[in-house]
């Protein structure tokens, strides 16, 4: 199983980023995919998940209306669109899949929101 994230970077408050995660090593279309994030000194937290059928998990209030998740199964890719970014969104963002009871993670992509 391999998960490769990309799309992070430095963005000003109010800006947007789209993160991508390309998956391999399993039948992507059959599994739910998740985005997590971990800010310095904080625990890793779930940002959004998307089921194999495209249904999404509930967003935390701090992210409602700003973050959306999507997937393109033919590309084995899951996306996280982040709009109206805030400094508190600064974190390393990780792609995740749970297979047969085990969690698999990408290497993470850094998102820094700063003026």
Describe the structure.
It is a single chain. By secondary structure, the protein is mainly β. Strands 2, 4, 5, 8, 9 and 10 form a 6-stranded mixed beta sheet that branches. Strands 1-3-7-6 form a 4-stranded antiparallel beta sheet, with no helix packed on it. The model has no long low-confidence stretch (mean pLDDT 94).
What low-confidence regions span 5 or more consecutive residues with pLDDT below 50?
Answer: none
The biggest beta sheet, please?
6 strands, mixed
Category from helices, strands and their pairing: mainly beta
Distance between the termini: 37 Å
Give the CA-based shape.
globular
User: Number of helical runs?
Assistant: 0
Mean of pLDDT: 94
**Which range best describes the helical content: under 10%, 10-25%, 25-40%, 40-55%, 55-70% or over 70%?**
under 10%
Share of residues in strands: over 45%
The radius of gyration is 13 Å
Order of secondary-structure elements: EEEEEEEEEE
Number of strands: 10
Characterize this entry briefly.
The chain has 115 residues and is mostly beta strands. 0% of the residues lie in helices and 50% in strands. Strands 2, 4, 5, 8, 9 and 10 form a six-stranded mixed beta sheet that branches.
């Amino acid at each position: 199983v391999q998960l490769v994230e990309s799309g992070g970077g430095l963005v000003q408050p109010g800006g947007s980023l789209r993160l991508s995660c390309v998956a391999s090593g399993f039948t992507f279309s059959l599994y739910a995919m998740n985005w997590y994030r971990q800010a310095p000194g904080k625990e890793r937290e779930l940002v959004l998940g998307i089921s194999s059928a495209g249904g999404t998990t509930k967003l935390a209030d701090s992210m409602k209306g700003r973050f959306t998740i999507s997937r393109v199964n033919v590309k084995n890719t899951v996306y996280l669109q982040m709009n109206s970014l805030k400094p508190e969104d600064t974190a390393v963002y990780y792609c995740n899949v749970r297979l047969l009871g085990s969690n698999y993670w990408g290497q993470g992509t850094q998102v820094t929101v700063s003026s």
